[in-house]
Design goal:
Structural class: mainly beta
Number of helices: 3
Helix content: under 10%
Distance between the termini: 17 Å
Largest sheet: 26 strands, mixed
Strand content: 35-45%
Length: 725
């Protein structure tokens, strides 16, 4: 009976131990009902509203927010309360809010907030809310709110590749991806770095205003940004009926697109308004921007809205629109003049403006005015029916006034009507250019009789046809040569003049020079007709020499007149190759100097130091070839770059004593004697017991508990046996 009791005790103890081990191995639930789904580190300035599932940031410090269970989204939200902010790191957040914004900065909060991105963060807003809501409900221009800055977790600005933090913010219906909710403006938002994707809900901007409101003081400094407006919202700027103002892009890579809102600028028209949203005070000075829209402007007004105060001074800007201007006013929407393009200035950068009606200016019904181009490389294309610059079509209302071009490289036109350009290919609206104006020049020779006896070019003869590779519809058929034999016009970088046919049938082709190596080659005329003699001036830069001089692959031989050739009936490409002399440094001998690649010369070792003799040549650097490394005087062949060789010497052989006296002394110690003692074996003094912090400590504790219970069972059995005695 006692034996069965003891067996029962042992079984109970074993079951208890197994249960404890199983309990230790089971994972803890992510969070129970009413628990916060977020883990907060670095600050205690927060509270959790369990009833509404909202984590409130209540202070202004540094903290990091991550997910308790990162494998699944949560519908709980985060709110930065009024008067709070600071530096907040988003560590792989995944919020899909059912109601309200996923992450919200309190309306009109005057404190600034910086969000640092770590890992991949997803913020999806509910109905009428933004994904990341930075809102301002005051009327336009009266919001004295703090700034929101978004950047990578690392210090400094980045062009952020896949290793940097990211944010995908999606607005609910009528809420911006980043910015205002329905009826709310999005203001003072800066993207400093990171990979940002912002998708607006219906009629809201990707970054900027919610439905009916504006997006203002929005900046992209660096990073990779993709912002898409939905319905009537701009990619970056206003929601439907809202303006996009004070938008600045200075770096990074930005892609912004709208449907009836602008790519960058105003939102589309609203039923309660007579016009669409305006895109104004938009400045682009660096980075790369791709902006497009269907009925709005690429950069400027939304559908039915104007684009004003647009300044481009640097960067790469590629913009397009179907019914609106690529840069300027949006498409026509019932009110003449509401979709104008005004006060547009381009002073630098590489700009492509291509649209269905007008490249730069205003489409149907709008006015184009105060458009100034003073620098940069600009392609302005009105596609099949419109103009490159101006307003189109004038018969539908609107006008073009005060358009000036004082510099830069401009290619403006369209495929079908190059002769109808509102901007002629002459500088500053027909005025003579000043010496400071940078223009593309075609210089035709006037004094061929000096070289070949042929008649010169009459400056009054018009150019019948000018063929330009890369700009076939440039519209230059009516240009004439001036009294200096010059044609002046703007030509985009990368285009090349192939030929110019004069009214008398003479065809001139370009003479271009391509140089390899260090040296200069110049031709006496940049354009010439077939049979004209072209003289070349060749100037190698010391210590180089001319190795090859060809025209269209044929070698040019030097004669008493120098290097010259007769112009073929095609473009002449002169290729010149200069060989660079390379440096050879000889240490311990002679032969140092400058030589051509592959040149063979002699190197000789110098007198040996006292007690030494020549041993060998060593190639210290470079890839030259030593004919006989063991010879004191030998040939050396230069490699493809600078190189160095050195003469190496060794001790002279010792003189042998004929009597065999004075044998070398034997060292006192023999190799291998007195080896170093082995280091003493370290002892821990604690046996095999687990250390503090050892991950096996829980198992040791369970085993100790089991041992204690078994020992107790044995003591009970012993006492029972003693009683029986």
């Amino acid at each position: 009976m006692q034996s069965q009791t003891h067996r029962g005790i042992r079984r109970a103890v074993a079951a208890l131990v197994a249960a404890l081990l199983l309990l230790a191995a089971l994972p803890r639930p992510a969070f129970a009902a009413g628990e916060c789904a977020f883990a907060v580190e670095g600050s205690s300035d927060y509270t959790f509203d369990a009833r509404n599932g909202v984590l409130h940031i209540t202070g202004h410090g540094n903290l990091t927010i991550s997910m308790v269970n990162p494998a699944a989204p949560t519908s709980q939200r985060i709110v930065v309360d009024d008067g709070s902010g600071g530096n907040i790191t988003l560590d792989n957040l995944w919020i899909e809010a059912a109601n309200g914004p996923a992450f919200q900065i309190a309306d009109n909060n005057k404190q600034s907030t910086t969000l640092f991105l770590k890992g991949e963060n997803i913020l999806s807003g509910g109905e009428n809310a933004a994904g990341l809501q930075k809102e301002c409900t005051h009327p336009d221009g009266n919001c004295d709110c703090g700034a929101l800055t978004i950047r990578c977790e690392e210090d400094g600005d980045h062009q952020c590749d896949a290793s940097c933090g990211s944010l995908r913010a999606t607005g609910g219906n009528q809420g911006a991806g980043i910015g205002g909710g329905n009826g709310q403006s999005g203001k003072k938002i800066t993207i400093a770095s990171g990979r940002i994707t912002a998708q607006g809900g219906t009629d809201a901007a990707g970054i900027g205003g919610g439905q009916g409101r504006s997006g203002q003081y929005i900046s992209v400094i660096n990073g990779r940004v993709k912002a898409d407006g939905a319905g009537g919202g701009a990619g970056i700027g206003g929601g439907r009926g809202g303006n996009g103002r004070n938008i600045t892009i200075t770096g990074g890579e930005t892609e912004a697109s709208g449907v009836s809102g602008a790519g960058v600028g105003g939102g589309s028209y609203a039923q309660n308004l007579a016009r669409g949203g305006e895109g104004s005070t938009i400045r682009i000075s660096g980075g790369r921007l791709l902006a497009g829209s269907t009925t709005g402007a690429g950069i400027g007004g939304g559908w039915g809205g104007s684009g004003t105060g647009i300044h481009i001074s640097g960067g790469t800007v590629v913009c397009s629109a179907e019914q609106g201007a690529a840069i300027g006013g949006g498409g026509f929407r019932g009110q003449a003049g509401a979709n104008s393009g005004r006060d547009i200035e381009i002073s630098g950068g590489y700009v492509v403006a291509q649209a269905g009606m007008i490249g730069i200016g205003a489409p149907m019904g709008g006015d184009a005015s105060n458009i100034h181009i003073s620098g940069g490389t600009i392609y302005a294309d009105g596609s099949y029916s419109g103009f490159g610059i101006g307003n189109y079509p004038p018969a539908m209302g609107g006008s073009t006034t005060n358009v000036t071009i004082s510099g830069g490289n401009l290619c403006a036109g369209n495929d079908n009507h190059p002769q109808d350009l509102p901007i002629k290919t002459q500088p500053t609206n027909g005025q003579s250019p000043s010496q400071e104006v940078q223009l593309y020049r075609l210089v035709f020779p006037k004094s061929w009789d000096v070289l070949s006896g042929e008649p010169g070019v009459n400056w009054q003869d018009p150019v019948a046809n000018l063929v330009i590779e890369g700009a076939p519809y440039y519209g230059t058929k009516d240009m004439v040569i001036n009294q200096d034999g010059e044609i002046l016009f703007w030509l985009p970088e990368g285009c090349a003049v192939q030929s110019a046919e004069m009214a008398d049938g003479t065809v001139y082709h370009p003479v271009t020079v391509q140089v390899t190596g260090s040296g200069k080659v110049s031709a006496n005329h940049p354009f010439a007709a077939q049979g004209n003699r072209i003289a070349l001036q060749v100037e190698p830069e010391a210590p180089n020499r001319l190795a090859s001089l060809q025209v269209n692959g044929q070698e040019i031989q030097q004669d008493q007149g120098g290097y010259q050739f007769d112009m073929p009936n095609q473009a002449a490409l002169i290729t010149a190759t200069f060989d660079q002399k390379l440096a050879l440094t000889v240490t311990g001998g002679s032969g140092s100097g400058r030589y051509l690649k592959g040149e063979r010369l002699t190197i000789a070792a110098g007198p040996a130091p006292d007690g030494q003799v020549f041993d060998r040549w060593e190639l210290v650097s470079g890839d030259g070839l030593i004919a006989d490394p063991a010879a004191a005087s030998t040939a050396f062949t230069m490699g493809a770059g600078d190189c160095a060789v050195a003469a190496r010497y060794k001790a002279a052989p010792a003189t042998v004593d004929p009597e065999g006296e004075n044998p070398p002394e034997t060292p006192d110690e023999k190799p291998g004697e007195n080896p170093p003692e082995a280091p003493p074996k370290e002892t821990g003094g604690q046996g095999d017991a687990p250390r503090t912090g050892d991950p096996t400590a829980p198992l040791w504790g369970a085993a100790a508990l089991a041992g204690a219970l078994i020992l107790a069972g044995r003591l009970l059995r012993r006492r029972a046996a003693e009683k029986r005695r």
